[in-house]
Amino acid sequence: MKKRQETERREETERREETERMEETERREETERREETERMEEAERKRQREGKRQSEGKRQREWKRQRREETERKEKTEKIHTLRLY
């Protein structure tokens, strides 16, 4: 009788320990998945920020080019008018 109780207790302890190990493994895997997801999301946000920064730089360069061309046209027009006056 005593041996059987010992065996049952040992088996119950083994089952409990196995369950705890499995739960710990699941928690660790879930944490790893969550961290990987966070890293991927941060990388995506970084790519988007870079893309916005690049497109903003492109937009600024285009604006400056247009202003420069407009200024050059005005200067040419003024030169022509000035030459006509003389």
What do these coordinates show?
Residues 1-60, 67-86 have a biased composition (Basic and acidic residues). Residues 1-86 are annotated as: Disordered. There is one protein chain. The protein is an all-alpha fold and 86 residues long. It has one domain. 98% of the residues lie in helices and 0% in strands. It is built from one helix and no strands. It is rod-shaped and about 125 Å long.
The secondary-structure element order is H
Percent helix, as a range, is: over 70%
Distance between the termini: 127 Å
Q: How many independent structural domains?
A: 1
The low-pLDDT segments are none
Structural class: mainly alpha
Number of strands: 0
Count, helices:
1
Tell me the major beta sheet.
none
- Percent strand equals under 5%
Radius of gyration: 37 Å
- Average pLDDT: 89
What does the overall shape look like?
A: rod-shaped
